[in-house]
Amino acid sequence: MTAGMTGLLEGLVIAHLGQGIAVEHDDKIILCQTRRKLDTVAVGDKVLWSLSAPDQGRIEEILPRRSVLMRPSRGDKPRPVAANIDTVFVVFAIEPNCDFLLIDQYLAVCENINIAAALILNKTDLPQSDAIEKELLDYQALGYALYRVSATTAGHNGLEALKQALKNQISIFAGQSGVGKSSLTNAIIPNKDLKTNTVSATTKHGRHTTTAATLYHMAQGGDLIDSPGVAIFGLAELSEPQLAYGYREFQPLLDNCRFNNCRHLHDKGCAVRSAAEQGDISITRYQRFLKLREKMPTAH
Question: What are phi and psi of 155, to 5 degrees?
């Protein structure tokens, strides 16, 4: 392994381990610590690091991110979950229940942070309802891709189309517990446990349990970040205007409201509320926007 003139090497953060961070460089995995006072390093980050011992390194700098996904943490500021993601795939299912409020929350955040979003309906072997189908048509009309899969059925219905969508980009699955994110990840990366053990062995860290996320290279090309902790990424970072902008169908209407500071609630001359009442945009999505607005720390 040779360092450049500066002694710094470029690497990719692939996992957070209990005692350090796994960084991939030239097909090798090095266990690294971070330089003091460095911001929190996220899986997916490209970093500059230096050798601090024969098999250990130190992260000196985080290279500029093209996107970052944050989640609420105890204390004051949100923590990064993963960086440089191209697409968040929102996973949901008929069971435990189809939480469209959570789906809208994810989509609103993605609209504001330069990350594309797509939808995965898992457990398609279960009976579907007309009400859910109607909601799904609304999302597709807004341009969100929808993949229907069954991670556990023989033949893995719909999985090939999803694998094609995951190619040549960095993706992450998000969704509430019980929707089958793990089964889906295991179906897409059959040797996932083997890869996890390889990280543990090469960093001499024993079997690691990921506290945040792990990045896997997929056989067909592209990377998938598996993050058990991404049940929620929050609204805390969004302002009320950003939440409204996060609803794709509101975007062309926002400049038509009578007042610049329209809250799209009971304000006079609100183009968004008027469009929802007239059926030009989804009334159920508008109602969920009002609910999310109430959940925001800044709502009044």
Answer: 90, -10
Overall size of the chain counted in residues: 300
What are the b/e assignments for 113-129, b being 16+ CB within 10 Å? bebbbbbbbbbbeeeee
- Quote the pLDDT of residue 181: 85
- Is 248 within the bounds of a domain? yes
CA distance linking residue 150 with residue 244, whole number of Å: 33
What's the domain range around 18?
9-62
Instruction: Tell whether 218 and 72 lie within a shared domain.
Output: yes
Instruction: Give me the CATH number covering residue 244.
Output: 1.10.40.50
Q: What whole-number percentage of the chain has pLDDT above 90?
A: 57
DSSP state of 38: P
* List of residues 6+ apart from 15 with CB closer than 8 A: 21, 22, 43, 199, 208, 210, 213, 214, 215
Tell me the per-residue pLDDT of 263-273, one tens digit each, with 9 for 90 and over: 999 999 999 99
Q: Report pLDDT digits (tens) over 214-234.
A: 899 998 899 999 886 555 667
74 lies in the same domain as 56: no
